[in-house]
Design brief:
12 strands, about 40% helix, 18 helices, alpha+beta, 5-stranded antiparallel beta sheet, about 525 residues
Length: about 525
């Protein structure tokens, strides 16, 4: 708590790097513990009584005005405060400074008892995050399952911490997020839409009692198909919960064998029900020997493979986020080098007025409509890694850019915020200057620049880069910025022999294999 701008002073005073100064000597009694800086509401209340003769009720009104950010009450109380300080012969300039500090403090006003409790919780959670990072983040993710924006933020934090968040798995997942034996976080079965806690718990109970499932046939043979029905199985398959059971792609669960009217999942349900019924009906002979029976396992169909985008969209529909990958991953170079602002910032247009915005994202929703006057207009929801944003276009802009209004298109948009030309002219709207496909940007790259430490240059490096360039010939100039860390010098070198195509292989080689930074122009 307390004004943010005073945090560095507080730290420096605590460690003896700065002298402890009081605006008035009388303030030391209540500010000694916080090194001369007002931190708590209680200090304001006590100082207002000591410096300006406030009553207990007036001091509490000041606390309330600060805590609730009531500007009108703050203005009224300032008059009383200044007058009271004058009666006690305190310098006006010092009094004004104290009040201004308190006014800034009002934005962060807090009382000491709450601060103590929150500090204790902060130390506990900081300890858990430091020593049990995966378990801590699994708990945080589970706590915020209903808030997809927070889930996205915490998923990014997991990535920053080097924690791997994996999709749901019938052999490892619990109801909510949990940590597996390898220390990775697993998505919860109960968090998959259309599965539910009862079905998830049935799967977990069977797994705990009789061990992991060996394959999809073992799964349907053992679970209660009354509790885990066909719809549950379909959603588990789409979400990837069966991916690690055996080598069956998600689309195969919805494919049909030649001559069959049933999908593979429907066939699995019939198989599981029949086998379980046979087991239940099995009679023991007079001599105690079990009668044998055999139910043939259904054949796994091939079917037509889903596109990456279709698979990811279905995954997102069921678990709320793109988890196994993101549709924009194939445009990492374009997003890293051409996009200036994440879409999350567009929800605060007042901070972006007058700035040119270079945006990238995938179209997740499309709407075409007409105004009351019969003029066409439309909107698209565009989503990137940070958030989504709805862009609405009218008149000429709509007619010019509506060809890009298509689900799944990955777009590069140049735009800026400007005042509305009609209606509420004080309101800002997003003015689109141009739209093009993200996939087309790579063809326009003129120079591919790699930052290369001098000590990395050797015969092996030259040979490997030459082979890479031979294999990926194109029209882009290959450039190296060679630098010497010790001498603090750098110089540019261009390849006269090679022009390259900026392929995924080229980017992965410099980024993942050699761990070198690169930029494009």
């Amino acid at each position: 708590p307390g004004p943010i701008e005073y945090i560095p002073d507080f730290i420096n005073r605590k460690h003896g790097r700065e002298p402890i100064i009081y605006d008035l000597p009388e303030m030391e009694e209540y500010l000694k513990d916080t090194y001369g800086i007002t931190v708590y509401q209680e200090q304001v209340m006590l100082l207002s009584r000591k410096l300006a003769n406030f009553t207990r009720g007036e001091a509490d009104s000041l606390r309330k005005a600060m805590g609730k950010k009531i500007e009108s009450m703050m203005v009224e109380l300032k008059v009383k405060f200044v007058a009271g300080c004058k009666e006690n012969n305190h310098p006006v300039d010092k009094v004004e400074k104290i009040w201004n500090d308190w006014a800034a403090f009002a934005k962060y006003a807090f009382n000491k008892s709450h601060s103590t409790c929150y500090s204790n919780v902060s130390y506990q959670t900081a300890y858990l995050k430091a020593h049990y990072p995966a378990e801590f983040m699994a708990a945080v993710l589970s706590r915020n399952l209903a808030d997809i924006k927070k889930i996205t933020i915490f998923m990014d934090e997991c990535k920053r911490m080097g924690l791997k968040v994996m999709g749901p798995d019938v052999n490892e997942s619990r109801i909510k997020f949990n940590v597996n034996a390898e220390g990775n976080i697993r998505f919860g079965l109960g968090a998959i839409k259309g599965v539910g806690a009862a079905a998830a718990q049935n799967i977990i109970n069977e797994r705990n009692e009789n061990g992991p499932f060996t394959d999809i046939f073992d799964f349907v043979e053992r679970i209660n198909l009354q509790s885990v029905n066909k719809k549950n199985l379909e959603n588990l398959a789409i979400a990837g919960a069966f991916d690690n059971l055996q080598d069956i792609a998600r689309h195969q669960y919805f494919a049909k064998n030649e001559g069959s009217e049933s999908t593979f999942i429907e066939t699995l349900v019939k198989y599981g029900n029949k086998l379980q019924a046979e087991k239940n009906a099995q009679q023991t002979s007079l001599f105690g020997e079990a009668g044998g029976f055999e139910v043939a396992k259904p054949t796994i169909p091939f079917g037509e493979e889903w596109s990456t985008l279709a698979r990811l969209n279905q995954e997102k529909e069921l678990i709320g986020i793109y988890l196994s990958a993101h549709p924009l991953d194939e445009f990492k170079l374009e997003m890293d080098n051409y996009v200036s602002h994440p879409l999350s910032l567009l929800h605060h247009p007042e901070k972006l007025k007058g700035k040119r915005l270079l945006l990238g994202g995938i179209v997740t929703n499309v709407r075409h409509a007409t105004t009351k006057r019969g003029n066409p207009f439309g909107s698209i929801d565009v989503e990137d890694y940070s958030d989504s944003f709805r862009i609405t276009l009218f008149s000429k802009d709509y007619l010019e850019f509506k060809k890009y209004f298509s689900m799944g298109y990955s777009l590069y948009i140049r735009a800026s915020f400007q005042n509305r030309p009609y209606g509420n002219t004080d309101e800002l709207e997003l003015k689109v200057e141009s739209i093009e496909m993200l996939s087309g940007l790579r063809e326009k790259i003129k120079v591919f620049t790699v930052k290369l430490p001098l000590e990395e240059i050797n015969e092996n490096f030259i040979t490997s880069v030459s082979r890479l360039a031979e294999k990926n010939k194109g029209n882009t100039q290959l450039k190296f910025i060679i630098y010497d860390r010790q001498e603090k010098v750098a110089f540019d070198m261009f390849s006269r022999k090679y022009r390259i195509e900026v392929s995924d292989e080229v980017m992965e080689y410099f980024d993942k294999t050699l761990h070198l930074d690169y930029t494009v122009e």
